[in-house]
């Protein structure tokens, strides 16, 4: 039967307009029905009370049924959907909620569909209730049950009842202190349950564990009792912990919620707790996770390197600093710097290789100029920082390398740092280089090869030259090609790519890494003989190494035909000089710090005009342009000598010579001069380049420098060359220009005094330096197959007969003298102009 | 070039091999007497050179060619002043090479 509910009455009830039946007797529908058991009142039997929601079609109100009417419910007269008329009731205000307590009613319809669409003012819910303190309060609290939002409310139920993820504490506050303001917020079920349980006024503080589940440290899925948060709770009504934990119902309740609704808490959360000092063992952060926005962190690290104490002076005054690098178990690296006081505090404590726990430092962005570690940050320690030494931890590696192949270096940008591992194929002695600011530095270079088939020049500066450099030199001298691992080498561009050491570099000679072993095996197998492309080009100019060659090699090796000119040194005699046009008229106007030197044309009236400067000058310069023929024992070549070299050769200025010839018309004197120049021996530095002259390719040689030959030093050079030759024999090295082995102990000569001789030659070697030796190595290789004459036993390697030596081999005799025949020339072809009598 | 009487390059240590034969060496003059000159060989051994010394002044270094009388004495036939700057080390090496590995290159 159609029934109509009293509309709008609920609102009025809630407002207070309608309070009892004296006002009206509304017809309402039961939309929810629940049995509540109350336990606390011991003098009664545990009585049942029914609580239900009454609807007027639009709104809902909570109601409680008088126990006397329970039977109606039990019988089923009142059920869900029943329409009833309240005949005797009262509306009570219990803590801001209106509860309708019904003493008498009439059932109009027992069973009916829900009429209308009633909405509860605020929330809808079913709440899990546990025992009520007093029905009233329970009822009151229940009224505002909320589901998820309850959880919110409970969790974050700050005054505004808005979810505030990070303010878990606040929410706990709210929970704890029971929203002291007793604010009209929806109460969390937990609250309620607790309230119910502990019979305090609703919203009593409660253990927050259940709440905690939902909170940020979702990472901590441990049982409540072990929660460190528990300790942080200590600050709050401390005794809470002992209270029985929220029963599983609530936990069960909270868990699903938590997974659904889990604001991300920063892991630091616990340490930012306003109260409890968390003294639990600190959590170890990985270096990779450090950032300036984190508060307190702790890292467990090993010190991989420690720099020296440095003092500095800046506008703010004096100071001192030192830094050290750290490595942790995950392979993260970071640098730590200490200034002034921190230096005093920590300098002695830090030992390379030990493991420490470091905490409370400041994180700053890394200064890439000084810091070459792959980390965006660096740590600055101050007096508040702590460093605690701890036991060695096997999980933290000693060193962390990030090796690259040499071929990769070509693609890497300059000034970046890298780690390298390779075989040292050659090493040159230390040279002192003058820097632009006029300080001298020690420099030593070596060639490093690796499996990528490339080799690169590694330059050592300063201290490295002496310590590690010498060790490497010794190893190379004895024929061992050591494996070298270099940490933090800087890539530079100087003659191709090359690698330099920086302050933070570290060398590891013959290290015990798997890469090193692999490298060694590869080298034994194939690397020794493989061809290596050097990505560091050797060329001339400042610091070029003297490459001694013979003139015949210019043709043989096709010098000058590659892109860049070749610079070589030869020891040769001037055999001829063109006397016509030995100089030209040049422009004297200074162009910077050099005179223009372009040819000037005679204007006819005594002035000279320069095209480049576009000026006329009265007096022109005379500059040499000598065409000379150079000859050594192998070949001859034409070369052009310009002003500087020309003066050295001629011994007088071009102007003087010009005057002698043209002005003074002193032919005789001129001839004398020329004659004296001819057949003088010099050490020439030549620049060889192929140039195109109207479709014709010609290899031209320019004399860059001409030095009068110093017999003594040249002889030493020769001696070394001889030694190389012999050692090359003994070791039968493959042909590799840059390899130089000194295995004097393996020298199998019949000379009695070989002992002393070797030391002497070793000295000579050292004195003279390796660069020459490089060259001789080449000689040696060519001759290595030749003349092995040991104290009387001669055999000609060319034709295998015993009567003569390869030098005198008849197979060669047919060739015109003076021709240098590549590799077939005999060992006797060694330049020995100074040896023997003239 | 006159190859009729070849002389072997020797230093102090090598002289004993060629006793009675013509040798040549360079010595650093230490002292001179009538009829003999005492000098230091390029390998720091003492050599006595007998014979008529050349007209003074003698330079620091002196080459003598003559017959080796014993392992430290030469009867000189030819004396040549080699000047004051000379590299004895190189000469020493020469001697060793000339008598050792490269003996075949010398007469």
UniProtKB/TrEMBL annotation, chain A:
The keyword Magnesium does not apply. Residues 124-144, 159-173, 180-194, 201-234, 248-263 have a biased composition (Polar residues). Gene3D superfamilies: Nucleic acid-binding proteins. One of its GO terms (biological process) is male meiotic nuclear division. It comes from the Eukaryota. Residues 406-509 form the Replication protein A OB domain. Residues 297-384 form the OB domain. Keywords: DNA damage, DNA recombination, DNA repair, DNA replication, DNA-binding, Metal-binding, Nucleus, Zinc, Zinc-finger. Residues 567-717 form the Replication factor A C-terminal domain. One of its GO terms (cellular component) is DNA replication factor A complex. SUPFAM superfamilies: Nucleic acid-binding proteins. Residues 119-277 are annotated as: Disordered. GO terms for molecular function: damaged DNA binding; single-stranded telomeric DNA binding; zinc ion binding. Residues 5-109 form the Replication factor-A protein 1 N-terminal domain. Pfam families: Rep-A_N, Rep_fac-A_C, REPA_OB_2, tRNA_anti-codon. It is found in: Nucleus. Component of the replication protein A complex (RPA) required for DNA recombination, repair and replication. The activity of RPA is mediated by single-stranded DNA binding and protein interactions. Probably involved in repair of double-strand DNA breaks (DSBs) induced by genotoxic stresses. Heterotrimer of RPA1, RPA2 and RPA3 (canonical replication protein A complex). Belongs to the replication factor A protein 1 family. This is Replication protein A subunit.
UniProtKB/TrEMBL annotation, chain B:
One of its GO terms (cellular component) is nuclear lumen. Keywords: Nucleus. It comes from the Eukaryota. Its main location: nucleus. One of its GO terms (molecular function) is DNA binding. It is found in: Nucleus. GO terms for biological process: DNA recombination; DNA repair; DNA replication. Transmembrane segments: none annotated. InterPro entries: Rfa2. PANTHER family: REPLICATION PROTEIN A 14 KDA SUBUNIT A-RELATED. Belongs to the replication factor A protein 3 family. This is Replication factor A protein 3.
